[in-house]
Design goal:
485 residues; two-stranded antiparallel sheet; 2 strands
């Protein structure tokens, strides 16, 4: 059995190296640069508007919940706010990729991989804006909220049912199933490192908790994520800032190491530059998901007056994830100097690095943090699969089976499988999923550009909250049944 697993792992690794060779990397960066240019650098010029929209939505969400409690509804409103949609998408972004993924990229690709993670985030945020705006534009009505994503905009925008179904299958395999195995694998590794707990029992507990939440639907997922995500992100960032402040004199050296390693002559001469770039881009994409087609699934659920609003908020999520949380992990690891220790990789490297800075409490804190990070990712990942299974079939038995596999079976599989196997499986599906989505958003991007122009024109006219009317896109009027005339 062990020999078969090793052979399977080697096969998937070779396929990943071939697919992840520079073709897909160039496609990701190329699309990011193209969207950045066509949106006139939206991710930089409209940061202030992004923050305003997110802040206003967060306030409205709290007021909605308070009003609901007064009305005897226990805070449950029959819509998903922009902030809740943002929280669910960040729940899947901010997770294993930020703590274990960054450590893996540095361990394999060197400190220079961090630079390429930054690059893919800076240009990828424009890609995130386009795909989430398209998801809002082509969303459909569902019983308690809206539903949408790449499968929906492929079918409604490109009229290619086969391609839409292909995407729906790929994202279900990637996020709903294989991605959850990584989250469980990382949680179990962290708990074993910190407390010596058995992966079997940790996996079972995770499965029970996950099943309880996912059977509650998007409303329960949104409410849980809106609480967990801010709490865990703020706590981790505060700790990282403390570590950085304690070692402030090393920060110039850290930046120097990152930049020199990203373009170092030694790496180029030895062929290592390829590993640096590839691992930086792979782990960057796994973390921020820009262009992968995942975040649009939850972006479509939000109730907003203009599609661009959610596009802007989701673009901000890329910055939050990579430039903030991932950088925190990278700085902790590079300050510790433990990234050259061959035995350390993944979450163990992050825990050891933090232990070297704050003592024995470090691994315990990381174990608790990764539980919150990765568990929220499990329930967020599940929803991506749910939305796409609903696109393929309304069969409730299929949905029930998927729920059991997503939050149950694959969580336990991840708890028991090897670190290398679960990461290789995710990289395999991530490559094909991203390629499918990039093709779609390049072909449909012109609609996002027109929507952005409309939004900017309304803002110039002094309209604080722009409103979209489907007459703006007459060729799509029949496809846009969620937008008023």
């Amino acid at each position: 059995m062990e020999q078969t697993t090793m052979e399977l792992n080697e096969l998937i690794t070779s396929i990943n190296d071939a697919v992840w060779g520079y073709v897909l990397i160039f496609a990701l960066v190329g699309c990011g640069i193209w969207f950045t240019w066509r949106t006139r650098f939206v991710q930089f010029r409209m940061v202030g508007e992004m923050i305003r929209l997110l802040t206003d939505s967060a306030v409205d969400t709290v007021e909605d919940q308070t009003r609901g409690k007064k009305d005897g509804e226990s805070g449950k409103r029959k819509h998903i706010s922009s902030f809740q949609a943002f929280a669910v998408s960040v729940a899947t972004r901010v997770g294993t990729g930020n703590l274990a993924g960054v450590a893996t990229a540095i361990a394999i690709g060197g400190p220079g991989a961090v630079f390429w993670m930054w690059i893919i985030a800076l240009v990828g945020s424009a890609t995130a804006f386009v795909e989430s705006t398209l998801a809002q534009l082509f969303k459909q009505k569902h019983k308690d909220s809206f539903i949408g994503g790449p499968a929906y905009y492929i079918q409604r925008g490109l009229h290619q049912r086969w391609m839409a179904v292909l995407f729906a299958i790929l994202i279900t395999l990637q996020f709903g199933l294989s991605n959850n195995s990584i989250q469980a694998n990382t949680i179990c590794g962290a708990m074993q490192e910190a407390f010596g707990w058995s992966p079997v029992w940790v996996g079972i507990i995770l499965a029970v908790l996950g099943l309880f939440i996912v059977f509650g639907g998007i409303q329960r997922i949104a409410h849980v994520s809106a609480v967990l995500v801010p709490m865990m992100a703020i706590g981790y960032v505060v700790l990282a800032i403390v570590v950085i402040a304690m070692n402030i004199n090393l920060i110039p050296h850290v930046f120097k190491v990152i930049v020199l390693d990203a373009f170092g002559i030694e790496q180029i001469a030895g062929g290592g530059i390829g590993a640096t770039i590839m691992n930086g881009v792979k782990r960057g994409l796994f973390s921020n998901e820009a262009g992968e087609g995942s975040a649009p699934n939850v972006a479509a659920t939000a109730t907003v007056s203009h599609p661009v609003k959610q596009g802007l908020i989701q673009a901000l999520g890329v910055f939050t994830d990579t430039l903030l949380v991932c950088s925190c992990t990278a700085f902790i690891i590079l300050i510790s100097g433990l990234y050259n220790v061959p035995e350390l990789n993944g979450i163990a490297l992050t825990q050891s690095a933090l232990q070297s800075e704050v003592g024995s409490a470090g691994p315990v804190f990381v174990a608790i943090a990764i539980f919150l990070f990765a568990f929220s990712s499990i329930i967020g990942n599940y929803y991506y699969g749910e939305a796409n299974i609903r696109f393929i079939t309304p069969n409730t038995k299929v949905m029930t089976t998927y729920r059991i596999f997503s939050a149950g079976v694959m969580v336990i599989f991840g708890a028991l499988a090897s670190f290398e196997l679960v990461w290789n499986i995710v990289d395999f599906f991530m490559a094909f999923l991203t390629a499918c989505n990039l093709i779609a958003i390049v072909l449909l991007g012109r609609y996002a550009f027109r929507l952005l122009d409309d939004y900017r024109n309304q803002k110039r006219q002094g309209i604080k909250e722009p409103v979209f009317h489907r007459e703006l896109l007459p060729e799509l009027e029949k496809e846009l049944d969620c937008w008023e005339s």
